[in-house]
């Protein structure tokens, strides 16, 4: 049996055992993508191709840890209802035998091209990385074409996650890298035929345009033009916490600037975090047929808590975020839940107007595990506003210091941990709650907090309290489940 058939047979066996177990899992998301079993991490190869949205993802089907990686695959016509396909890439060849790592998709001459990193542990246990190509006519079955790019001089074998796009008749590829001096870099290549790639050099990196170090490795870069700005998304590893910033193990954020196409000349501003919560990493964007720039990220973090997720005992771990449309507002990247998500709303919302006057005030509701909650803050004067969700997530805003806080119960010991950021004037909160996740969009996507949480299945409580005068308008929607369970 070939290696590929052997691995597929192993997956088939797990799948049939899984189907026969058929256990109810209260933490399985209703409208977020999660793996049928095993571990999911980065979204890969996001593309709108021949009338369907495709989401591939890093998948270890055999275990709930970061062992070997396949490309799992879902597709959809509406970004809501997803169909599962056979794994698109299987780590079966000498150049990808220890993992088909992250990468991207493009359409060329009616075919889908996947670029990914072949991860190899050689005989001495050392890492090797190959940037590889696979091509498909139908977007489901892929023919591997092998390596198209080797690690250039000056870099360690932490060289991965190709993101490819076309501009002015040329192809470009940006890669996440580590220099021989152990600094993170985003490195740019260009090609006329998708096979031969010329290095244009680092776009930017730690200790290059910075006076300070900015991480020992940059993962999952993405580079695109949006509303007059050239945006570099990337995930630096090795940043120390600084004030309210960088409290997760790894970060995810962007530079906005100006790039001279055809060169690696890129002038940019400061690093801005994309998400201020606990579980957000490795985002990737694509442009759809309506010309929207849409981002999806891994709703996870590979930190010490990872192995404490209670879903592990059900044989799966992690999920992806909802698709978010990116816009630039005042030089800053905003994220909006894609409009399609409104179709998940069941019936009319419950609408509540709250006018809190002097003293302590409270409001209670019961919510569905899949809910969308919109709170318009008409006024909030000199006192903290606090929202508690299913006794696990606490959101608060203090107008006196302008700090927004998300606190959650730690998976390991139930103690509260928090993430915070400054929000100058909080006008609106929009929350997407799923069985075990929350995504909070503040002021129409100016800041976003994303987190997983694991509440008691029966706990449906939603509670608002305000220390001072406040006038709020609430809209509560229950949402339909739309993803494969
Ligand atoms: C980011 C990452 C990528 C790599 C992939 C492996 O989470 O480490 O850099 O390609 O995951 O699964």
General description of the model:
The protein has 485 residues and is mainly beta. Helices cover 4% and strands 53% of the residues. It has 1 helix and 34 strands. It has one helix at residues 3-21, and strands spanning 38-49, 52-60, 70-76, 83-89, 100-108, 111-121, 127-136, 143-150, 155-167, 170-179, 184-191, 198-205, 217-226, 229-237, 253-259, 266-268, 272-273, 281-287, 293-298, 316-317, 324-329, 332-337, 345-356, 361-366, 371-380, 385-389, 393-398, 403-409, 416-422, 428-434, 437-442, 447-452, 461-466, 470-479. The strands form 7 sheets. It has a 6-stranded antiparallel sheet with strand order 23-34-25-30-31-32, with no helix packed on it. Strand 7 and strand 8 form a beta hairpin. It is globular and about 70 Å long. The mean pLDDT is 96. The structure holds beta-D-fructofuranose. Residues 41-42, 58, 69, 101-102, 117, 160-161, 219-220, 281-282 line the site of beta-D-fructofuranose (FRU).
Task: Describe the secondary-structure layout.
Layout: H1 3-21, E1 38-49, E2 52-60, E3 70-76, E4 83-89, E5 100-108, E6 111-121, E7 127-136, E8 143-150, E9 155-167, E10 170-179, E11 184-191, E12 198-205, E13 217-226, E14 229-237, E15 253-259, E16 266-268, E17 272-273, E18 281-287, E19 293-298, E20 316-317, E21 324-329, E22 332-337, E23 345-356, E24 361-366, E25 371-380, E26 385-389, E27 393-398, E28 403-409, E29 416-422, E30 428-434, E31 437-442, E32 447-452, E33 461-466, E34 470-479
Parallel strand pairs: 1-20
Antiparallel strand pairs: 1-2, 2-3, 3-4, 5-6, 6-7, 7-8, 9-10, 10-11, 11-12, 13-14, 14-15, 15-16, 15-17, 18-19, 19-21, 21-22, 23-34, 24-33, 25-30, 25-34, 26-27, 26-33, 27-28, 28-29, 30-31, 31-32
This protein binds beta-D-fructofuranose.
């Amino acid at each position: 049996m070939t290696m590929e058939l052997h691995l597929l047979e192993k997956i088939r066996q797990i799948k049939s055992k899984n189907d026969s177990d058929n256990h109810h899992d209260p933490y399985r998301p209703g409208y977020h993508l999660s793996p049928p079993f095993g571990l999911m991490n980065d979204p890969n190869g996001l593309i709108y191709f021949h009338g369907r949205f495709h989401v591939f993802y890093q998948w270890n089907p055999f275990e709930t840890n970061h062992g070997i990686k396949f490309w799992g695959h879902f597709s959809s016509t509406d970004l809501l209802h997803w169909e599962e396909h056979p794994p698109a890439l299987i780590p079966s060849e000498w150049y990808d035998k220890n993992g088909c790592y992250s990468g991207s998709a493009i359409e060329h001459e009616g075919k889908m091209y996947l670029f990914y990193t072949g991860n190899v542990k050689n005989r001495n246990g050392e890492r090797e990385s190959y940037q590889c190509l696979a091509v498909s006519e139908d977007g489901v079955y892929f023919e591997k074409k092998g390596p198209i790019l080797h690690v250039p001089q000056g870099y360690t074998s932490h060289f991965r996650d190709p993101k490819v796009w076309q501009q002015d008749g040329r192809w470009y590829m940006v890669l996440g890298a580590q220099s021989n001096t152990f600094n993170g870099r985003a490195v740019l290549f260009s090609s006329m035929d998708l096979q031969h790639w010329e290095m244009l050099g680092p776009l930017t990196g730690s200790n290059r345009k910075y006076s300070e170090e900015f991480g020992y490795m940059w993962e999952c870069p993405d580079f695109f033009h949006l509303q007059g700005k050239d945006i570099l998304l990337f995930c630096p590893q090795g940043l120390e916490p600084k004030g309210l910033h960088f409290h997760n193990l790894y970060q995810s954020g962007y530079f906005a600037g100006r790039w001279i196409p055809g060169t690696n000349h890129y002038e940019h501003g400061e690093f801005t975090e994309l998400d201020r919560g606990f579980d957000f990493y490795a985002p990737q964007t694509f442009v759809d047929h309506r010309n929207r720039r849409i981002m999806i990220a891994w709703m996870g973090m590979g930190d010490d808590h990872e192995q404490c997720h209670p879903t592990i005992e059900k044989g799966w771990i992690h999920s992806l975020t909802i698709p978010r449309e990116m816009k630039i507002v005042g030089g800053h990247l905003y994220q909006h839940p894609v409009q399609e998500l409104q179709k998940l709303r069941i019936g009319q919302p419950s609408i509540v107007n709250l006018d809190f006057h002097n003293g302590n005030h409270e409001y209670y509701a019961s919510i569905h595990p899949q809910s969308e909650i919109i709170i318009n803050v008409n006024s909030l004067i000199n006192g903290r506003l606090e929202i508690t969700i299913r006794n696990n997530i606490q959101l608060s805003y203090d107008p006196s210091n302008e700090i927004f806080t998300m606190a959650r119960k730690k998976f390991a010991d139930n103690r509260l941990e928090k993430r915070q950021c400054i929000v100058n004037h909080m006008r609106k909160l929009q929350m997407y709650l799923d069985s075990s996740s929350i995504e909070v969009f503040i002021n129409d996507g100016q800041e976003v907090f994303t987190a997983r949480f694991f509440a008691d299945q029966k706990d449906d409580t939603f509670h608002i309290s305000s220390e001072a005068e406040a006038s709020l308008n609430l809209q509560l929607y229950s949402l339909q489940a739309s993803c494969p369970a």
